[in-house]
Write a structure and sequence with these properties.
By secondary structure, the chain is mostly beta strands. It has two helices and nine strands, in the order ααβββββββββ. A hairpin with a 2-residue loop joins strand 1 and strand 2. The relative contact order is 0.13. The structure holds zinc ion.
Length: 167
């Protein structure tokens, strides 16, 4: 290649194809969050707590007793002390609850979310029954559904309304 006249540099700023391509891809997404593989996006780390054989997997600080809903943390986030793995019974007391009135991902509106203080354990986010949702202070039990979300199971109603939300 002789000359080296870089005409391409004059059009260097034009990258409309890739820009518009990115836009159209974004426009088809259900929301602005990173969608994950299930929605056709890139794989993202799953930070949700896991329930295996009826036990909520987590950890507890052996120095201060702080409970975590994850087992794979390097140290206690409260005191930086050493932690050891622990299992918790998936039962707790509602700390706060809200009803979401827009669809989010595979959850159609309305649906209810609650922060639940697991008995002698961590605080976790649980999809709770929607009509009506449990009040703060109420006891709830929960499990993980097939999609990996924590969902309330019946202490007060076992009909499963609000759990289903089939996509
Ligand atoms: Zn600690």
């Amino acid at each position: 290649m002789s000359g080296g006249r870089s005409e391409s540099s004059m059009s260097g700023g034009r990258s409309e194809l890739s820009v518009s391509g990115g836009r159209s891809e974004t426009a088809t997404r259900p929301n602005k969050r990173r969608a994950g593989r299930a929605a056709g996006g890139l794989a993202v780390a799953d930070s949700r707590p896991a329930i295996v054989d009826g036990v909520l997997l987590g950890a507890r600080c052996s120095a201060c007793g702080h409970a975590l809903a994850r087992a794979d943390v390097p140290w206690c986030p409260a005191c930086h002390g050493p932690i050891e793995t622990a299992g918790f019974e998936p039962v707790g007391t509602v700390w706060a609850v809200t009803t979401v009135r827009i669809p989010v991902g595979r959850w159609s509106a309305p649906f209810a979310l609650a922060y639940v203080d697991v008995t002698d354990g961590p605080r976790v986010l649980v999809h709770v029954h929607c009509a009506p949702p449990p009040a703060p202070g109420e006891k709830v039990a929960f499990t993980a559904n097939a999609d990996g979300d924590l969902v309330q199971i019946g202490l007060e109603s076992a009909d499963g309304t609000g759990d289903g939300n089939d996509a």
